[in-house]
Write a structure and sequence with these properties.
By secondary structure, the chain is an alpha+beta fold. The protein is about 20% helix and about 45% strand. Strands 1, 2, 3, 4, 5, 6, 7, 8, 9, 10, 11, 12, 13 and 14 form a 14-stranded antiparallel sheet that branches.
Length: about 240
């Protein structure tokens, strides 16, 4: 188990423990999967021009993956409680002491803060969506290959994309939603989200008419996905439909 983590379980055989509620991210997930905004080349370029600073936003939101990754610790720690025919349900509480932005972690919560997560277990599976709170949690981001200080405050929520069995590890695309505040490199972001893998990051943007489009960032640069596909914008001023 990683240094700085505390796990507390309230699990029982099926029906013996309450399953905690999880954040309702269904509308957010649906908007990422099927954005309803409609763009032309001019509007796509305008979305990019009005977008938040993406390198900083991406670095800050990617750093939260360190917190979410401790679902693996919860899964592994709980596995010895399972056996043939045993069905577990209940909750796992994760207390995470944040490591700070320096090369050598400092897990003192009075220095680098902390975060807590509540993970729901039903039918011996960890539910895909879970949430908690960050309290002045300092993490190290990667901003153009250089370390950057990231600080989180407020509610946090994650979606793994699918449930995972107790004792199994998780991999895939992570959705991070921060109703609270994220600070990095002099920028402050509030109520932001991103869905990402190692190779691509997506950020949901609401247009003036109330519809949504998804900004994409990968090795090829920036693009914008609307209801009909993706606009590729290598120059960030000229966009073409892919």
């Amino acid at each position: 188990m990683c240094c700085g983590i505390g796990l507390f379980t309230t699990l029982g055989c099926s029906g013996a423990a309450d399953i905690p509620g999880t954040p309702d991210l269904r509308a957010l997930i649906s908007s990422y999967d099927q954005p309803d905004g409609e763009l032309d080349a001019t509007r796509a370029a305008a979305v990019l021009a009005d977008a938040p600073p993406m390198p900083e936003l991406a670095a800050g939101l990617r750093s939260t993956g360190l917190i979410a990754s401790h679902v693996d610790d919860a899964s592994a720690d709980t596995a010895p409680n399972t056996g043939k025919g045993v069905r577990l349900q209940g909750s796992i509480q994760v207390e995470f002491r944040c490591p700070g932005e320096l090369g050598t972690p400092d897990y003192d919560p009075s220095v680098n803060g902390s975060a807590t997560l509540t993970i729901a277990v039903a039918d011996t599976r960890i539910r895909r969506t879970f949430g908690g709170r960050a309290d002045a949690c300092v993490l190290k981001g990667d901003l153009g290959g250089l370390p950057a200080r990231v600080e989180l405050d407020g509610d946090i929520a994650f979606d793994l994309g699918h449930d995972i069995g107790i004792g199994q590890g998780w991999s895939g695309r992570l959705l991070a939603y921060l109703p609270g505040q994220l600070e990095i490199a002099g920028y402050t972001f509030r109520s932001v989200s991103a869905r990402f893998t190692d190779k691509q990051l997506e950020h949901l943007i609401q247009l003036g008419d109330g519809t949504f489009v998804v900004l994409t960032l990968n090795a090829s640069g920036l693009g914008v996905r609307d209801k009909d596909g993706t606009w590729y914008c290598p120059s960030q001023t000229t966009c073409t439909r892919g």
